[in-house]
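Structure in, sequence out. Go:
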C-alpha cells in the first residue's frame, strides 16, 4: 500500500499551493491535504477545488483541529502550531508551500543562519515565542527542507538559501493554468483586490477608502475583499456608488481565472500580483500594482516593514 503524505494548510493560498506541490511530484504519489478546522475561507476554497479535475492521488481531507503528527508539507512556518509539532515529531523532511510574503521572510531567515528565530516580520511576541521560533529554526536544520514557491526570488537570496542546505523549488501554477475557468469574470473592466493592510493598522483607512471612492467615480469597479479585511470596512465599501463587492474567501488565483483581455486588476502590494500575472498574462489581462503613498502609512509601519511589504517585484 502506498503511504499517504499529509499537507497541513491554514489559508486558501496554502491549500492551492499544496495541490500544485502534489501535482509537481514533490509530495509523493498520494497526498491528503488537511485544512485547519473552523476557517470559512478554507471551506470555500476546498469546495471550489473539488469542482475541478484534481490531480490523481490527491485527497482534500476533512478539516481537523490539530495538525497531523507527521505532516510532510505545511504553509505557515511561523505558525505556533506548526513549530510546536515540529519539535514534538522530529520531521525528517519538510516541504513549505507558498503563504504570501511570509515565504520570502522564511527564505531570508533560513539564509541568515541557524540561530535566527522563525518569527514574522512584525512579530510582537514575548520571550517564550522567540524561544519557540529559535527551537523550530534549529529543528529545521536537522531536516531535509524544500521551499516550493511561485514568488520571484533574487539570485543572491536563492544562492544563499541553497548554501544553507535548503532546496528551492520554483513553480508557475502549472496545474491551475491547465484548468478551464469555472465561471465568467465580473462585467466591470477594472477589478480591485482588497488588502489586509488597513485592518492590520499599517495603512490609514480614510486614505484607502477615499482612493476607492475616487477610482469608482471614474469607472465601475469589481471589488474582491481580502479574507482578513474588516467586515465593517467591506460594508462601507459596498455602500459606495460604482463598486460591486464580490464574496471573498477563495483565492483570487481561482476566482479571477475568467477575466478577459481588456480587463485589468489593481492591487496594493501583494504576492497575488505575481501569481495573477502568471495566470492572466497570457489572456491579455493587465495586473497592475498600486504603490502606497507615504502619507497612507501609519506609525506602526516602520521603514523596514514597509520595505518587506513592498519587496515583491511588480
Amino acid at each position: 500500500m502506498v503511504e499517504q503524505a499529509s499537507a497541513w494548510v491554514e489559508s486558501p493560498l496554502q491549500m492551492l499551493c499544496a495541490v500544485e506541490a502534489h501535482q509537481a511530484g514533490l509530495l509523493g504519489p498520494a497526498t491528503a491535504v488537511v485544512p485547519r478546522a473552523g476557517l470559512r475561507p478554507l471551506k470555500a476554497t476546498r469546495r471550489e477545488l473539488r469542482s475541478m479535475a484534481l490531480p490523481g492521488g490527491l485527497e482534500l481531507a476533512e478539516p481537523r483541529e490539530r495538525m497531523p503528527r507527521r505532516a510532510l508539507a505545511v504553509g505557515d512556518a511561523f505558525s505556533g502550531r506548526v513549530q510546536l509539532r515540529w519539535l514534538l515529531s522530529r520531521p525528517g523532511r519538510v516541504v513549505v508551500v507558498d503563504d504570501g510574503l511570509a515565504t520570502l521572510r522564511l527564505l531570508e531567515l533560513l539564509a541568515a543562519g541557524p540561530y535566527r528565530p522563525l518569527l514574522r516580520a512584525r512579530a510582537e511576541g514575548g520571550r517564550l515565542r522567540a524561544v519557540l521560533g529559535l527551537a523550530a529554526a534549529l529543528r529545521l536544520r536537522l531536516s531535509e527542507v524544500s521551499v516550493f514557491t511561485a514568488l520571484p526570488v533574487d539570485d543572491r537570496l536563492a544562492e544563499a538559501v541553497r548554501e544553507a542546505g535548503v532546496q528551492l523549488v520554483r513553480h508557475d501554477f502549472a496545474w491551475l493554468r491547465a484548468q478551464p475557468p469555472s465561471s465568467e469574470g465580473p462585467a466591470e473592466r477594472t477589478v480591485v483586490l482588497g488588502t489586509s493592510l488597513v485592518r492590520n493598522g499599517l495603512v490609514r483607512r480614510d486614505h484607502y477608502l477615499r482612493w476607492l471612492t475616487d477610482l469608482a467615480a471614474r469607472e465601475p469597479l469589481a471589488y474582491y475583499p481580502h479574507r482578513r479585511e474588516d467586515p465593517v470596512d467591506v460594508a462601507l465599501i459596498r455602500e459606495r456608488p460604482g463598486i460591486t463587492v464580490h464574496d471573498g474567501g477563495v483565492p483570487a488565483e481561482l476566482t479571477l481565472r475568467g477575466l478577459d483581455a481588456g480587463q485589468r486588476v489593481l492591487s496594493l502590494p501583494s504576492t497575488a500580483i505575481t501569481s495573477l500575472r502568471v495566470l492572466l498574462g497570457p489572456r491579455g489581462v493587465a495586473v497592475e500594482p498600486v504603490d502606497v503613498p507615504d502619507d497612507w502609512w501609519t506609525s506602526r509601519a516602520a521603514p523596514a516593514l514597509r520595505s518587506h511589504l513592498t519587496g515583491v517585484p511588480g
